[in-house]
Structures are given as C-alpha cells and as structure tokens.
C-alpha cells in the first residue's frame, strides 16, 4: 500500500508537471513527491531535470523570437541544446542572422535612395529564399521604380530650369507619382504657352513695332496669371507711352507746337517724356519768337513804305519800335555827312548827330553831339558801327518820367543805322527791363530795313533837289509864255491832286463810317439781350432770387450800360469829327431833366457814402427848348466824373439863371442857364485843366492810375455844349475839389421856342434860398424824387390797359434779342410772334392779321429791315400798321432813313426797356397819349 501510495503520488506529480509544462505551457513547474527514494527518487529528479531543461530552452527561444518580433535582431539562442532542440536553435539563429542582413540591406537602400538621394541602390541579401527573397526583390523593384521616376522628373526639371520646355516626363507612374507627373507636364505646357505668348508680344511690341499686343494664356492661375497680367500691363503701358510720344512727335513734325506728352510715366521714360516736352516747349518758344520777329519786321517795313519825310519816318519808327520791345524811352539821331569830302562813300566823316525824334523824351532834354571826336556811347556806336548794350545802367544816366514821377532805366541799347557800311543815324532805347535775345536779334535785322528806307528817302530828297535845281535853271531860260503855261499846268496838276486826295478822303471817311456802323452793330447786338435779361433778373418779379443775386444782375446791367456808354462816346466823337452831330431841340421841362439826374446819380452817391445836393434858383425858367438827350449826356458826364473822383464829402448840382456879367460865355442870347457841378474830390492841377477837354486825354494817364476811363467824356461834352450854343468852364484846386459849369441858352440857337406852359413852380425841387448861398439837400424820401421804373409799373394803370393782350410781331435774325424782347413784352401782358427775316415777317403778317405792332430789325439776311418796311407800306391793308425800327446801327442818318422808308419810330439797340415801352404805348394809343400830354 505504501508503494501504491507513493506511485500514485509520483504519477500525480509527473502528470501535473507534464500537463503544466507540456499542455498548459506553464514552464518552471517541478514534481514534488515526498517520502520517495531509490528509483522513484531518481525518476522524480529526472522528470524535474527534464522540465527544467525544457523551461530554460523554450524561454531562451521565446526571448529571441520576442526580440525579433520587437525588431531587435541582435539576440540569439545561447542555451545548450541537443537533438532537435539544437536544430531548432540553429534554425532560429540562422533566421535572425538572415533577417538582420535583410534589414541592414533594406535600411542601406532606403537611406541611400530616400535620405542620401543616391539613386540606383539595390539590396543584396545572400542565402535568402521564399518570402525573404520576394521581399528583397520587391524592395529592389521599388528602388528601381523610384530611381527611374525621380531621374525622369529631375531631367525634365533640369530642362525647364535651363529654358528647355520641350521635355516631358514619360516614365510609367501610378498613384501620387502619376499625379506629380501630370502636374509637372501641365506646368511645362503652361510655361511653354506663357513663353510663346510673352515671346510673341515682345516680338510684336519690341521688334516689329506692332503696339497694342496682349499675351493670352488660357487656364493659368496664381503667379502665372499675375505674370501674364504684368506682361500685358507692361505692353499696354509701353503702347500708351509710345503712342503718346508718337502723337506729339507727329504734331511737331506737322508744325503743331501746342501738343505735349501728358501720359503718366516713370523712370527713364519719364525722363524721355520731360525731355520731349521741354524740346517741344523750346521749339514752340523758338517758333513764336521767329514768327514775332518776322511778322514785326514785315509790318514795320510796310509802315515805312511811301514816306518821304525823315522826321516823319523817325517818329514812326520810335512810336512803333519802342513799345514793341517794352522800352520806355527812345531817341533818334540822324547823321549829318560832310558833303565836301572827297573820300570814298564808306569813309564819309560825320559832322554831327542831330536829334530828330524822341519817344518819352523832350526836345530840350536831348543833347546834340558835335563833330568828331565826340564823347558818349552814341558817338562810340557811330564810330564803331556796332550795337552797344548797357545793362545795370547807373541811376543818374537818364530819367524816364511821367506825370506822377520819374525813375532810371536799367538797360540801354544803342543801335547804329547803316547802309552799305555808311552810317545814317543812331537809335537809342532805354527800358526798365532787360532786352531779350529776340529783341536784340530784331534790332540787328531791323536796322538794315531802316537803313534802306532812310537811304532811299535821302536819295530821293537829293534827286528831287537836283531835279528842282535843274528845273529852276531851265525855267529861267524859258520864255514867259512857257513859264505861264507851266504854271498853268502845275495849277491843273495841283487841282487834280487835290481832287484825288478829296476822293481818297471821302473814300476813307466812307470806310470809317462803314467800320463804325459795323462795329456798333456787332457790339450793340449782344448787349441788347444782355441788358434786357439783366434788367429782367434785377426786377425779380417772382421774388425767387436772393438779394445778392439781384445785386449781381444789377451789376451786370450797370456794367453793360457802361460799355454801351463807351460805344456811344466813340460814335459821338466820330460824328463830331465828321461834322454830322445833329441837335434835335424840343420842349424840355426842367423838372424832367432834374428827375433824370436824381434817379441816375442818387443811388451811386448813396453807395459811395457821399452827400448829393440838387438846388434850383428862384428865377430859373420852368422849361427849356433844347436837345434833352444831349443835355442829359453832358450832365451825366460831369456828374459821373465828380462822383468818380470824390472819395468823401459831397457832390452838388446847382441850376441858376446867368447874370448879364456872365454872358461872355454865351453870345447872341440874353437868356442863359448855368448848370454847376461841384465836388470835394481830388481836384485837378492847373496845368492839366486845358488837357482834360482833349480827346483821349486825362489828368492822370499813367499805367498805374487809380481812376479808369477813356478820356472822351469831357471832350464830347465840350463839343455838344458848342452845338447847343453853350460852353463848359472848369475850375479846380488840387485836394479841395473841382467845379464844372455848363452855360447853355434856354432856347437852342436858330430855333424859336414854343408858347410857354402856364407858370407853376410847385413841381420844381428845392429852390435856392435867397440871400443864403446854401443849397439844401434833396432828402431820400419816397415822394421827393421818382424811383426807377420796374416792369410791374407797365402792367397797371394806363400802360397796363394799353399793352395787355396786344399782339406784336418781332422781326429779328438774332435769337438772343428775340428771346430777351419776348420775355419783356410777355411780362407786360403782350402776345409775341417772331420771324427770322423780312420775308418770313411778311408771311407771318399774312397769316396773322391781328398783329397790331411790328418791331423791325434792320440788318437781316435775305431781306433787310428797310426792304421789309417798304414792302409792308406798299400793301394797302398794312399802311396804318405801327412799325418801330430796332437796329444796332446807330450811325448818322439811320433814324432818318428808317422814318423815310415808313417806320413810325426808331429805337437803337441795346434797347432801353422803358423807352421802348413808352414808344409802344404812344403808337398803340396815340389819342390817349395826346390827352395825357
């Protein structure tokens, strides 16, 4: 039993150890059987030894395989083994060595190909087969594919980098490498297209000169899109810049110097642009200077032709030359050759230089040089026969003076006049500014022209002198009958010359009259619409304009009226010179004249802060028989001057009957009125008083004068006063004021006054207080003086009844005048038709039999106003139709010609609105006008 128990325990332990080690894999198990000995003890120990050996071997194998599984190929099986375990140990160790060799080769190939970039590497693992052989082949295949693909990509990239866009990637590829291949090939195609387009644009723009080319590359984005855009911008900018330069160059080549390059540029193109613009500006300035020089040379040469008097020519030269070159002083010295000299003509000595003409220089201020040797630069220029230019002249060299002061010039030029190297004279000019190079070149060329002209005059004078001497000697040898016949012939020739000159004078007068008529028409025509529309705006009937805008319109109307007055002054001066100024006396209530004075000048004095006084003597007649328009013109000129030259104080008008002692100013009449205009202004120097009544003369005529004006007003006023049988007398003291007195007869000379009106002095303003000598001021009240008429006044009362609903025809070719007159007449309630010429006017009358008045312009195309008026009057049904001639031709005889053709009245342009409406009312309601009168 003990044995059975021990065997059973032994069997259980061995079974357990076998199960744990062999089946369950729990290595390290040991059989523990107690109480055994002998064979059973040996068996137990052998079983335990076997289990221990298996444990150590399996665990060593497990460690190595675990290390291999973990990628550690440095471990090997080192436990002692025998038999199959030894074979297993050798197999595992061989496998580890092969794996380590395979890993080393794969790592080497991966490092060379993937890291070091050494393409072409291959894994070489000896003694492998099966899967390891396949793995080695696959790695080598992968390395070969990568090598061929990367090398192909590198070749294409190198070709692109070297500018060769003909290469592409042609190696087989798949996956992402295929995508890379496609991307690179697409990039090469894009670069090739971009290169071709850029090359084409560069060739067209840069080589062939075909501007405007643009690169078109389809399907590009990003940088390539920006590059394409930049190339196109470059081509566009070059096109714009080159075309702008070409346009300016073409314009310059065709003589147009007004163009310049305005396109925006930068860098060297900007410098080129600036240089070309500077070149054009220089060419323009050179051309302008050349044109100025040539035109003035031709003009002055033409002016000198036909003159035979040296003094006249010298004066003409200085009058034209001095202001032309911006000089302020000029002197002309004529050389006096020694006629007794026997030397050649080019060496004739000079006896002296005589001053014969000056500009800005008085005769007594010049010096006459003696014979050679003479002193001074004039004589030096005469000896050297060369121009002398002095810049920075000393202050005491010479003085250029005017009425206000004097100053020294800074530049002097002395020019000898030569003809075939013979000195004929010297011109000296002085200026406050430097003479330009163009001026100096002009001097050098002009003296040759002057030399020819003066030499011609001298030669003609000598020829005429010799001819006269010869004729005188011949005449002494002739018989008295021949002498009488010659004298008769001379008389006939003189008469013929006088007749010819008279004809030329008549022609010249006709041309002058035609010129003035045309000038008057061309100036008055636009003024007509300007004044009418300005008047409409200043009336502001709807109240839409602000006070400032009304003031603007008033200023425009006032300025236009001033311009009209200037035109009238020029025409009046022309009439006076031609002796065609006529006087139309009529009954003139004095209150009407004074109303005009107050209405015209009261606002002006208020604006300037001046007191304006009007006073009438007790014994002044209630009315005059004189020309109302001319009296208004004289008083307007005198009062305008008084207000203009008075900064503070007062302006005064006194109307008095002249005492017998003052009749020395007006003869052949016992009834004289004095209109005295006095002011507290700047006054006039005594030596200037005689000058101010000359045409175009003023007390201050300098360029820096304070007061404007033409200098015609007083001259015209004096002449008109003479036509009225009167005279203007002036008194003045500088700094205290001036007094101008108009003496005019109550009845115009050569006329008989009509029966006087009933004596009623209630309507005369502010009579002169007896024994006081003072003149009360006309206070600015509503009932003291009438206010200026507005258009509203013509829409009420009698004018409103006459004008409302009446139909008027305007015949005028100037739509501006039609526009202005239509608005004026429409404002007062009239219905307006218009026609552009006489023919259309007659057609309009035939279509509109209800027309009650015609406003007829004179100068029109196709059929003028005179012809139209005559045609209307030839038609029986229109013989009584009122016609008013409206014309901008305000020349003598125009009014009479219009009336003779059949016009009822004559109104000059620019039209005075109140005057025109007055005439219209008189023509539309003559009976009411007579009753009112």
From TrEMBL:
<feature type="domain" description="HAMP">
    <location>
        <begin position="52"/>
        <end position="104"/>
    </location>
</feature>
<dbReference type="InterPro" id="IPR004358">
    <property type="entry name" value="Sig_transdc_His_kin-like_C"/>
</dbReference>
<dbReference type="InterPro" id="IPR029016">
    <property type="entry name" value="GAF-like_dom_sf"/>
</dbReference>
<dbReference type="Pfam" id="PF00512">
    <property type="entry name" value="HisKA"/>
</dbReference>
<dbReference type="InterPro" id="IPR003594">
    <property type="entry name" value="HATPase_dom"/>
</dbReference>
<dbReference type="InterPro" id="IPR011006">
    <property type="entry name" value="CheY-like_superfamily"/>
</dbReference>
<dbReference type="InterPro" id="IPR003660">
    <property type="entry name" value="HAMP_dom"/>
</dbReference>
<dbReference type="InterPro" id="IPR036097">
    <property type="entry name" value="HisK_dim/P_sf"/>
</dbReference>
<keyword id="KW-1133">Transmembrane helix</keyword>
<keyword id="KW-0472">Membrane</keyword>
<keyword id="KW-0812">Transmembrane</keyword>
<dbReference type="InterPro" id="IPR003018">
    <property type="entry name" value="GAF"/>
</dbReference>
<feature type="domain" description="HAMP">
    <location>
        <begin position="236"/>
        <end position="288"/>
    </location>
</feature>
<dbReference type="Pfam" id="PF02518">
    <property type="entry name" value="HATPase_c"/>
</dbReference>
<dbReference type="Pfam" id="PF18947">
    <property type="entry name" value="HAMP_2"/>
</dbReference>
<protein>
    <recommendedName>
        <fullName>Circadian input-output histidine kinase CikA</fullName>
        <ecNumber>2.7.13.3</ecNumber>
    </recommendedName>
</protein>
<dbReference type="Pfam" id="PF00072">
    <property type="entry name" value="Response_reg"/>
</dbReference>
<keyword id="KW-0808">Transferase</keyword>
<keyword id="KW-0418">Kinase</keyword>
<comment type="similarity">
    <text>In the N-terminal section; belongs to the phytochrome family.</text>
</comment>
<dbReference type="InterPro" id="IPR001789">
    <property type="entry name" value="Sig_transdc_resp-reg_receiver"/>
</dbReference>
<feature type="domain" description="Response regulatory">
    <location>
        <begin position="807"/>
        <end position="924"/>
    </location>
</feature>
<keyword id="KW-0902">Two-component regulatory system</keyword>
<dbReference type="InterPro" id="IPR005467">
    <property type="entry name" value="His_kinase_dom"/>
</dbReference>
<dbReference type="InterPro" id="IPR036890">
    <property type="entry name" value="HATPase_C_sf"/>
</dbReference>
<dbReference type="InterPro" id="IPR003661">
    <property type="entry name" value="HisK_dim/P_dom"/>
</dbReference>
<feature type="coiled-coil region">
    <location>
        <begin position="467"/>
        <end position="504"/>
    </location>
</feature>
<keyword id="KW-0175">Coiled coil</keyword>
<feature type="domain" description="Histidine kinase">
    <location>
        <begin position="518"/>
        <end position="748"/>
    </location>
</feature>
<feature type="modified residue" description="4-aspartylphosphate">
    <location>
        <position position="857"/>
    </location>
</feature>
<feature type="domain" description="HAMP">
    <location>
        <begin position="144"/>
        <end position="196"/>
    </location>
</feature>
<dbReference type="Pfam" id="PF13185">
    <property type="entry name" value="GAF_2"/>
</dbReference>
<keyword id="KW-0597">Phosphoprotein</keyword>
<dbReference type="Pfam" id="PF00672">
    <property type="entry name" value="HAMP"/>
</dbReference>
<dbReference type="GO" id="GO:0000155">
    <property type="term" value="F:phosphorelay sensor kinase activity"/>
</dbReference>
<dbReference type="GO" id="GO:0005886">
    <property type="term" value="C:plasma membrane"/>
</dbReference>
